[in-house]
Structures are given as structure tokens and as C-alpha cells.
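Please review this one:
***
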Amino acid sequence: MPHDPMRPKKRRVVVTGIGAVSALGSNLNDTWNGILEGRAPAAAVTHFDASQAPCKIAYEVNDFVLPEGLISDRERRFLNTAMVYGVKAVAEAMEQAALVPGQVDPERLAVCLGMGLCSADVDWCERIFLPKKYADPSLDEHIRFNPEQLASVVARLVGAKGGNTTIHTACASSGQSLGEAYEMIAYGEADVVVTGGADSMINSFSMVGFDLLGAMSKRNDAPQQASRPFDVGRDGFVMGEGACMLVFEDYALAQARGAKILAEICGYGVTESTYRITDLHPEGRGPVEAMQMALEDGGTAAAKVGYINAHGTSTQINDRVEALSIAKVFGTGTGAPKVSSTKSMTGHMIAAAGAMELAICINALRFQILPPSINVFQQDPACPVALTEAVATPTELSFALSNSIGFGGSNTALVARRWL
């Protein structure tokens, strides 16, 4: 929605911590290095028997270990896979931000997370409900399916009493959670917000559902080359999983406590396309408006944006319409921003995608390097954007933008500024 001119922003919002879990690694550093190396760790699915599924490949998290002592055994029992990834990412982000419970006013510390369908455990449902074990005490584990469960645990972990919000807008979930967290601080509703997203939908129920929609790649014989954003031969996305969490903070507070600032968040746009549940409007109406709103919100000229991490799912419609949307806002000539979709390396992390991709934008700004565009064997001429090179490339960046586009028509855009 348009921002109320009678409610001007008075506070700057900065990022002081980031944590990540992905198929590239169980922390931000390993994930970022995997991006720079252009790795695509997609492989045959092991989380379930996918032998009969049309799509048999995914970007799975491997060798993940939850550090001892973060949560109790009872809490662990009530968390599904995605939520456990989220707990680990929150711990990493809080450590980098050098924040411990009680350090800031708990009434001014909030949690705002993007969560998905929480990966319904089909095997568990069959085990409990098909035999009609109504008296089975393990029925209480149904709480694992509740999206708000992670935010409740995170609030306890970080000592947050200033609000607890869970957002589900499909693939735009964590992008919207970041934007709402940003506005909470900018408008003085909170001083610190732990935000981001987590998801794990590598299961038979979810993957077959996306298969039936025609959204997933069928390149089972070449998993590492299957995700091809903006390539003429793209045939669908490849599922990923993981989490990415960030600590957003009022600049004055971060400065007062001597925190290391990673970047500034300086613009947010959110729109609804109101077109079709699974398709973008062919003219890119919603994404265009979200990007324009984010630029206007931060007072950032389009010409200043040097890099865009596109939603870029590797589906025919999404990539074409998003590319046209970017071209409408930023142009296609000399000076147009470089564009990439890092889903080719992380897989589509669904509700966690937006947070991961903003984190990658922030690292691109910090280290002045453009993430590579891999698996682009022939760029689709219907996608008129300036893609990054096939290898990570040094550059000069001041501003970066991250897009998220969700089923149902939700669109978000976030602008980040390099911190000098």
C-alpha cells in the first residue's frame, strides 16, 4: 500500500546480524562462498522416496547439526525441520549482531518471520490418522504444522516481548516479513526486530503438488543444470530448503552499543497483483509497482541501483514477466542494473527465499562483488535484463534490490544501501 505522507519516517534501519542454513552450507559464510563459487548442489531426493515423482531432484540441506543447548528437548519435539533450521539461523544472526537477551528493552524487541506451510509430515499423518489412534499421545506433535510455532520459540530465545508476527504469503513470505520489520523500526514501533524466514517442502505432498501445477523442472538426469533462471530452455524450478534470519535495528541504538553495521535498509514496497493465483499479470503490474514503491520509499533513484537479486524461479512465465518488469522500472540500456537469480544455487527456498536473497544482496554490497548467473546457456531474448557474468565479478555497488513474488499475487521489493 502507498505510504502515508503524514507519517514520515524518522529513523534509519540497519542490519547488524545475518544467519543462514541452505543446501550450500549451514551458516552464512559457507552459503555465501558457495554462491561465489557458482555451486549448484542439487541431487536426487533423499528425504522421501521420489522414484515415482515427476521431479526427483532437490537442493537438500546435508550434514546439519543443531548446536547443543539452543532449545530444550521438549521444544525440539514441537519443531519441524524448517523450524529447526530457523532456530540455528537465529542463533547465528544474534551472535553476529552481538545481542544477548536482556541487552535491549524486551518491550522494544520484536519477532517478524515468514513461514510456509511448515512441510506437512505426510508419513506422520498416515501413522496417526489412518489407524485412527485418537488416544496416541504423539498427537500433540501436530503443533509442528502451525506456522507461528517458530516465532514463539524465537521470541523466547531472544527475549522478545515487543510483538510476535508470522506472515505467510507463499514465496513472498520472508520478503514481506523483512519489509514489515523494517517499517516497525522506521515508524518507532520497535527498536530491534529479528526477522527472516524458514521453509522445507522437500516432501511428497508438496513436490507432487507443484509438479501438478507444471512448476517444477523435469531434468532429473542433470540436477545441477536443472535450475536455469532466464535461460531459453528453462522448464521449472528445483525445490530448496533452509532458513535465513536477520537482525534489523534502529541506527541510533546500533551506534550507541557499538554494533557492526552490515547494511542499511532504505526502501520497501508491497503490492497485490489481483490477477491469477499461479500466474503473474502479463504486464508485470504488481512487481513494477512494488519496485517503484520501494525506490520512492527510500528516495532512491533507479539509476543508483547496481544489482537486483531477482525472484527468478526458472519457470517460463515468472522469468519473462519479471524481466519485463525490471526493464520497465530500470531500463535496458547502458547503466541498467546487473541481475541474477541465486535460486540456481540455493534452489527455491519458498518462504525463506526472500530473506536469503536480501542477505545475498547485503553481502554483494559489503564485499563489492556480483553473484554469478549460472546455468544460462542461452539467455532468453524475451528476458531483456543485463545478467551478471557466469562467475562472481568485482564491482562498485551502492544500492541493491531484492524481489519476491508469491503465488496468489503477492509482490515485495526491498532496497539495501552499502554501509561505509
User: Anything to note?
Assistant: The two ends are 31 Å apart (CA to CA). The chain has a mean pLDDT of 92. The longest helix spans residues 81-97. The chain is about 30% helix and 20% strand.
